[in-house]
Amino acid sequence: MFESAKLEHRLDKAAFKSLEPGLRENLLNVQFQLIDQKRRSLLVLIHGPDGAGKGAVLNRLYEWLDVRKLETLTHDAPCRDDAGRPAMWSYWRGLPPFGEIGMMLGSWYHRPMCERALGKLGRSGFVSAMEDIRRFEAMLHAEGVSLLKIWLYLEPEEANRRLKALTQGAYQRPVVREWAELHGAKERQRLSLAAEDIARITSTDFAPWQVVPAGDDAYRDATIGSVLLEKLRAMTADGAGSPVHPTPSPTRVPNALPTFSILSTLDLSQKLEKDTYEEQIAHEQSRITRATRAPQFDDRGLILAFEGSDAAGKSSTIMRLRRALDPRRFRVYPIAAPTDEEQARPYLWRFWRHIPARGRVAIFDRSWYGRVLVERVEGLVTPEQWGRAYGEINDFEGQLAEAGYVVVKFWLAISQDEQMRRFAQRESIPYKRFKLTPEDWRNREKWPLYEAAVTEMVDRTSTRAAPWTLVEAEDKRFARVKVLRTVADRLEAALSE
After folding, report:
1. What is the residue extent of each domain of the chain?
2. pTM for the full model?
3. Domain topology for 4-236
């Protein structure tokens, strides 16, 4: 796979000195276009064996580009857990906004490559990890993040020789050690083979691997500057990379067949009397308190997503849930329209940044499902965007579950008549008027569209790892007990595994 990279590639100093000024000027010009357009961001993944010059490449690009819109994203010891959070959390957290460039050392490729080189990951598991990465990168590209993936090629023996030379002598230079876990020649050889597999499996039309011979510093740097220039030109070309959030026509419910609504199957007449409610709510709160204080929970985490009709009682239900939790170990995130900072990144970024450390709880009042609910119904995203979001959300929740988090999702359902009654009540109580907005009234007109969106959402994102719980919320007491009982059941089941 790397046959051409194994041949000798050299560029003499005079030739490099001649081409460098023009290359730098062109890079800066096209970077300024990227900054002005704010249409996409660029992640540059720099990989290669230790000793291939990753740090030198990084320093060269900092010399050539406008550093004010350039950021280094480093991930130390990616083979280990990052602050007790899911493996992908730190990568999401560091995504640059549109118009900027992130230089990444130690990307999502490191862990599977490291485990493959150490013999901890078999062939099938390695290929499966690469398929997950391909889907992740496809999502990033579709959401406005371009990728330039660079592998600095050196024969394992030569890379090891250079590494030793850099770390010995009177002046020991700082070295970017990406593969400190690998010690023997056999492991370094496995790493080289894993790199060839990765280049073959994960090279796509939108994010191919650029294999750069690293034997000669001048040739290496000139080549990387050239491929970076080509990538930036493609990103900033007229018409390239259409806007991330175009305004399409609103989604409409087809009229050819009667529209099925999963919400219509719920029995909204279910109720609890006050005495029974108080007894049961206290019992479920006690179960949740015990579960979240258990030593086993320190290796877990709890993520709750609340969706539902306007005025369905999400806030009051969350309030009862809060009373069962240690206030030092949980946080509620009310989700509104995205800020400018959030719009300048893929839509899942603002949720990834709030994923808590293990042993803690995050409660989302509205959630990442806005992409397939309000953004779909209001025509804020294209059918292609909300259509692919189902798979992206399933991957997101699957990664959380694999990292030990319990993901619990609720849809609180009420009838249109009950919603109207609650709206009128909010209008009549001064301290509740802030809960009612003109948008709430407007959303009532789109009730059938929301029912169709909810039905498809539940069908396509209720998984074994993160099932949906539909809550009959016409009676608030019944809804609160059902929610808390579901949380307690899921926690106890997870802690007993």
Report:
1. 4-236, 262-495
2. 0.83
3. Rossmann fold (3.40.50)
